[in-house]
């Protein structure tokens, strides 16, 4: 294959556009370089990327070249929260046509293992996921992707909202695993991007009361403006856990049924375990240190279950429906926008890494 | 009421004084009179015949507490029991004098949300034999609600009836962890609780069961009771030994679906977390220190859920059925027997506390 672009059927004019992408070439080094697309399979589509968001994991790869046990060993295209427009469809693709606006689910599972067959394809050991090494990501002009992982956007849902389906899916999957419903009082530890999408998802699932906890006053005010029933500001000091729990329970006013730890610290997990009532659930969403020191025994002895989540499964249709109906509004989470140039890519990641008032940084291509 | 016992209708005879084993101070058990409450319309009076000693009874003896339960005044000890009905209340229709029954220790309130929601084991007003301040059942007689006394089939002995209580812990754990014919089970800790959990798992159809312990004698007992294989591990309580996890997984031969921690140490919990497959379950039965330092994050990020258990609910009928059909044989677990006298009570608790080859110490009254 040449430099990208395909020869047309009659062999005459060849589209010469070179497909470019943002490559992670070494620690803290992103470079926009050519990205050769694989050939279009019969069940694939070629998508022109229009909106790509930056995730905390992308930033982590940039800074450390690793995330948990995934290690970047050679240059890799970054990015996985994306949406775009179909430009070409494979010969067997019937569900999509050129021109369709689609949101992409990043992970291609094998469909042959027991996890895939058992309905838990997110746990597939052979998962190929955008920007999880060694699989290239989607911060590029174009990508090739299976058609069944591209979901058509309704008229009233923008491409940026389409890209937001990915982080939103984390919140949706967590709410499903924790069985959030119309009788579930929800506590969320951490008001960063993940805590916020979890809150939006919990509300959409009918949670009657949602309390959010963080150390950062600004983030708590954002959470309040996005619909939290109440917020509690806490310290990073472990000694304060008991008092925090009292404050949080008062703020909820009744038993806390489900807690989401969207921060991943021993303190936040300990607080969640102690604050949740007997028979409830604590869902660990945030990825922290592997070893956590937590009051596990008293929680287990009250049948407070700890539920983990890994990415998501089968969430795009529901995300899109929530966005279509307005049950969820993700637009306020997009705080910064950048174009797709070398300087802007570098700056965008710096802004995202800084945190603070940067919730979701979005590329418009 | 007088000293226990009733005056007969002709006013002449006074019956026996009811005696019980009282925990009067740390390490001090005394057989003393135990005045029975009056027999309510839905109660029965039971002559105790078989009472087992539980680790929690030993713990109460040694420390006057168990978790947040504190012994503040003398309390009758014991809760694993079975006996013969001697008197039934006016409204009791299900039982008659002479019936041999096993007793479920805990009286729940029946009107809180836990009771109404089918999780009566979490009732905050639970009154449980031998959990302060409620007197236990190591006594000549007790008065108990008829609905918590379960008639023993002909071929099930009173000692086996008393074993329903520890067995219920294993049954409840297997239910919460969804053990079935496709479940490969790992059990860490081959003490009495690990053993009843193994027997329960086998009765639930578990396909393969591996036991892990530091003690060879207990492992050989587990093997003789039906474990498919066992792995002896080191006493190092600090952290997981990766080689041991590999050994355990090799002994299983295929993915470990459910792990039961029946020991309650950081190391045993982390071992279970690391050894269990993605999407599996770790069930904490062993009661360890409040704060534990465990490898929680990576397990949560593989959707390994951590579930706890608190006692049991609605398990006696199933226990008795398993005992009746022989699907479970608890008799080998009863290793030591004592009569009900001051000297024997003291000795029995010493034997039980010693551990080692003492699995279940049983009183015959």
Automatic annotation (TrEMBL), chain A:
One of its GO terms (molecular function) is zinc ion binding. The keyword Transferase does not apply. SUPFAM superfamilies: GroES-like, NAD(P)-binding Rossmann-fold domains. Pfam families: ADH_N, ADH_zinc_N. Its cofactor is Zn(2+). Keywords: Metal-binding, NAD, Oxidoreductase, Zinc. It comes from the Eukaryota. Residues 26-363 form the Enoyl reductase (ER) domain. The keyword Oxidoreductase applies. Homodimer. Belongs to the zinc-containing alcohol dehydrogenase family. This is Enoyl reductase (ER) domain-containing protein.
From TrEMBL, chain B:
Keywords: Metal-binding, NAD, Oxidoreductase, Zinc. PROSITE patterns: ADH_ZINC. Residues 25-363 form the Enoyl reductase (ER) domain. Its cofactor is Zn(2+). One of its GO terms (molecular function) is oxidoreductase activity, acting on the CH-OH group of donors, NAD or NADP as acceptor. It holds the Pfam family ADH_N. PANTHER family: SORBITOL DEHYDROGENASE (PTHR43161). Homodimer. Belongs to the zinc-containing alcohol dehydrogenase family. This is Enoyl reductase (ER) domain-containing protein. It comes from Ensete ventricosum (Abyssinian banana).
